[in-house]
Write a structure and sequence with these properties.
With about 150 residues, this protein is an all-alpha fold. It is built from 4 helices and no strands. The protein is flat, with a radius of gyration of 29 Å. The model has no long low-confidence stretch (mean pLDDT about 80).
């Protein structure tokens, strides 16, 4: 039983992609987050005018707060239905709990990775601020020396 391979016209797909890029007016330059079209309201709201490290920090904290998924929801209502649901839970426990553990582990790793990204951004920002402060200090000294020399000449 050999399955037939589906032939994919890659050139047609690439032509379609090129057409979409041309219609949207994208060029071979770096795009800003706000320039990328996103379908749906939520994505558009998340894209701001520029990157904000404080915003990234708050999203990482929110991710950390909800990273653990609960395996079971509280049961309530009709006692007969509740009993049946408990029996079903016992029967599928062996299948559901490992999936939830895997998801929780993935969520934990994702939050840790995002925290590392945040730390790198913060580190780069701190280094850039220090570099700019040193540059301002050098330029201030240079300007001060030039002003001193000009005042001596006058």
């Amino acid at each position: 039983m050999a399955e037939e391979m589906i032939k994919i016209d890659i050139e047609a797909i690439m032509a379609d992609i090129r057409k979409n890029i041309e219609e949207r007016g994208y060029e071979e330059t770096d795009l800003k987050f706000a320039e990328v079209e996103v379908q749906g309201k939520e994505g558009t709201l998340l894209l701001g005018e520029m990157f904000q490290i404080d915003e990234l920090s708050s999203w990482i904290v929110k991710m950390d707060d909800v990273k653990n998924v609960a395996c079971w929801r509280p049961l309530g209502g009709n006692p007969v239905k509740t009993f049946i649901k408990k029996v079903i839970r016992k029967c599928i426990k062996w299948y559901v709990e490992p999936i939830v553990e895997d998801q929780n582990r993935y969520n934990h790793y994702t939050v840790c990775a995002m925290a590392q990204v945040f730390s790198k951004f913060a580190e780069n920002q701190d280094a850039r601020i220090k570099e700019l402060e040193e540059q301002v200090e050098r330029l201030s000294k240079t300007c001060g020396q030039q002003l001193t020399e000009q005042s001596k000449e006058n």
